[in-house]
Amino acid sequence: MSTKYVVLYESSENVMEKAPVHYAEHSAYADRFQSDGTLELIGTFGDPQTQGSMAVFNSREAAEEFVAGDPFVLNEVVKRWEIREWLEAYS
User: Fold this and answer.
1) pTM for this structure?
2) Rounded to whole angstroms, how far apart are CA atoms 91 and 85?
3) How far apart are CA 43 and CA 53, in angstroms?
4) How far apart are the first and last CA of the chain?
5) Strand-pair partners of 44
6) In degrees, to the nearest 5, what angle opens at C-alpha 3 toward C-alphas 30 and 63?
């Protein structure tokens, strides 16, 4: 088994208005983590307004660093977030 770290985001009430304004910066920021191999997956659930989004990292440090500088967090596109340790059984 492999340990991963899942970032769960809860969207702000007006995510559909705020997200497009900050998406390019958020996407470029995520690209940096994907390029260095620490970000494995990222995306929204079916309805981002009510279900939020998540990202999967291969280290807790990378997950914490991502959240600390993510334009979506800094610009309140995200209302709340949490990091959970997850044990991947199969890859």
Assistant:
1) 0.93
2) 16
3) 6
4) 9
5) 53
6) 30
DSSP 90: -
- Take residue 43 and report the two structure tokens written for it: 């995306």
List, for residues 6-27, the tens digit of each pLDDT value. 999 999 999 999 999 999 999 9
Three-class DSSP category at 77: coil
CA distance 73 to 66: 10
Tokens 């998406």 belong to residue: 23
Length of the chain: 91
Angle at 86 (CA atoms; ends 80, 2), nearest 5 degrees: 145
Q: What is the pLDDT of residues 51-66, one digit of tens each?
A: 999 999 999 999 999 9
CB 74 within 8 A of CB 9: no
